[in-house]
Write a structure and sequence with these properties.
Number of strands: 4
Order of helices and strands: HEEEEHH
Amino acid sequence: MDVWQYIHEENIPVVDLYFAKERPMYVRGDALLPVERDFVARPGERPQQIKSRLRSLGCSPCTGAIRSDADTIPAIIEELISFRSSERANRVIDHDQEGSMELRKREGYF
């Protein structure tokens, strides 16, 4: 929250991926997976246009998307006030047992 408030107060530009808009996504349970060239879809899986934004950015397994209407920084701040999960909660890598970051920490990866 502090970072977003600082970004807003100082008028710091951020990339558009943080703002909600219609995007092609694969939907797996509660997870939204961005459509990318290296992504392997499951049989019968098709991308859907979902109004979403990315809460964290990084490589594909570290990028988490959520359904959202927050298309401005003040709207993101307002959305964060109601959240009870961290930005990292949507990261695919943390929910993939084989490659989870928690597992990597235990193995001494960090």
